[in-house]
Amino acid sequence: MPIKNIVFMGTPEFAVPCLDILNQHYNVTAVYTQPDRPKGRGQKLAMSPVKEYALKHNLPVYQPEKIKTPECVAELRELKPDLIIVVAFGQILSKEILDIPPLSCVNVHGSLLPRWRGAAPIHWSIISGDKQTGITTMYMDVGLDTGDMILKATTEITPDMTTAQLHDKLMVQGADLLLQTVQLIEENKAPREKQNDNLSCYAKMLNNDNCRIDWTKSAQDIHNLVRGLNSWPVAYTTLNNKKFKIWQTKVTTGTGNPGQIIKLTKQSIIVATGEGAIELLEIQPPNKAKMPASSYINGHKQELENNVSFI
């Protein structure tokens, strides 16, 4: 069936390459994105990256606070999409909406399903020490990332890769895989593979609790947490009741009580963990910009040598 009309739903930067590639090859008749939100110190209303792209390319933009309302459902029916594409939209679609397009609703998901379902699959793949991840396109159903899979593309996670780096790689990969997927759907050749629920993990929302470093864990686990939370929301710890964000680390050797500063070098602060030790290479003290650990050491060497521990 020829695809004449696509409705796109997405919000963050991750979704923009997918919208761009669709806009180059198909007729995108409407773009749905989250409402403008306050941002930055001034808390001025800011458009989503998807909205910025859509306006630049003269695509109609819809920004419902809740897409499940009868008004939104009626609006979507009026648009008569052949296909709805969803990429990190930020709202759950009702069955009423899922049933509107004759060729289904398709989601671009940032993991190799069914491994990580949920809100933060890129972060948790790194935090958990996975060696590979990727992109999955799938037919959407009423469950949370439980729909039948269409295509997958795999990406290696290197030992020091951060979420920011992986995000940018998957963002491009996702657009390429989406185009292949839509072309196969149009040709009625798209595969359909059910997910094995027993192989699934839930990539839960990140919050203050799961971003705090637990120094009783191994150096490798802490290193994974730090790179998994870089560049947002960033792992943190406290020293002398002050909150420090930790941006970059390296696993090393050493012994001591978990959290104890056991050595200072010209480049790093070495801290004991539950198993091994870890070098802090880039940190962010309270009310300061992030900096090399060496810069902080230069101004606080005596304090750091005073047998103190991170908590």
Present the secondary structure layout:
Elements: E1 6-10, H1 16-25, E2 28-32, E3 37-39, E4 44-46, H2 49-56, E5 61-62, H3 70-79, E6 83-87, H4 95-98, E7 105-109, E8 116-118, H5 121-127, E9 132-139, E10 149-156, H6 163-186, E11 201-203, H7 219-228, E12 235-239, E13 242-252, E14 261-264, E15 269-272, E16 277-284, E17 291-292, H8 293-304
Question: How does this model look, in words?
Answer:
Its EC number is 2.1.2.9. This is Methionyl-tRNA formyltransferase. Residues 207-300 form the Formyl transferase C-terminal domain. It comes from Megamonas funiformis YIT 11815. The chain has 311 residues and is of the alpha/beta class. It folds into 2 domains: 6-203, 3-Layer(aba) Sandwich (Rossmann fold), CATH 3.40.50; 219-304, Formyl transferase, C-terminal domain (Methionyl-tRNA Fmet Formyltransferase, Chain A, domain 2, Roll), CATH 3.10.25. Helices cover 27% and strands 27% of the residues. It has helices at residues 16-25, 49-56, 70-79, 95-98, 121-127, 163-186, 219-228, 293-304; strands spanning 6-10, 28-32, 37-39, 44-46, 61-62, 83-87, 105-109, 116-118, 132-139, 149-156, 201-203, 235-239, 242-252, 261-264, 269-272, 277-284, 291-292. The strands form 4 sheets. A 7-stranded mixed sheet has the order 5-2-1-6-7-9-10. Helix 1 runs parallel beside helix 6 (163-186) and helix 5 (121-127) packs antiparallel against helix 7 (219-228). It is elongated and about 70 Å long.
